[in-house]
Amino acid sequence: MPAPVNPFKAAIRQKQFQLGLWVALASPYAAEVISGSGYDWLLIDGEHGPNDIPLLSAQVQAVQRSASHPIVRLPCGEAWMIKQILDAGAQTLLIPMVESVEQAKALVRAVRYPPHGIRGVGAALGRASEFSRIEDYLQTANDQICLLLQIESRAGLEALDEIAALEGVDGLFIGPSDLAADMGYLGQPGHPAVLEAITDAFQRIAKAGKARGIMTLDLGQAHHYRSLGADFMAIGTDVTLLVSATEKLKSEFLAGESGATKSVSGY
Fold first, then answer.
1. What is the fold of 7-265?
2. pLDDT at site 260
3. Backbone angles phi, psi at 23, to 5 degrees
4. How many CB atoms lie within 10 A of CB 66?
5. Residue 71, exposed/middle/buried by CB under 10 A (0-12, 13-18, 19+)?
């Protein structure tokens, strides 16, 4: 029996747009709740969310019961982290702050078994192989691992063509906020100069035949990125949605309470 098919990797290879959401609450229970919302993928954030490997693993497990595909963003591209989260069952990784082709090559090797890489042969101890019940896991796992690299600096943009040309890189994800900051426009991901850089990056990624990814909290920007050809995109985060929903509920109640008080006092 081979390794499980990675539906997200299959979809982006077939140019099927994949809609996603950021999951940063560091809660398996919250991840499970969100996983029933119908997004194609959920990004479990280990870079800015307060997560460690066991907690990331628990969220992967919670999401895997749903139709949403769990993608894990590690805090950095350390080989030992990659090894552990792959053995825990993650099949798709997003690695932040990739700025050179040398770094990208090391990441490709980190997600592959020898002789094509350096991933340690220990999956029999983990969920990835269903605890060694998938007999052909070692022989088939490489094909189902999806590696997404995050480009979010001027240095990353300069190296983008070389990175995109690498075999084993499935997609490149532009980080608008960090890119804007690096370009001198902190807090302005929608600045015209940043949008121009993103448009150019998308064109170069498409030319290399790789999937183009991005995220935004602004639906207007989301539609613009989609028109530029985004192949996979996140349109919000669980944290910001929770904040906006709770504040909106409070405001709506207080507005109604004020109206009711005025009505009563008018008698």
1. TIM Barrel (3.20.20)
2. 67
3. -120, 105
4. 17
5. buried
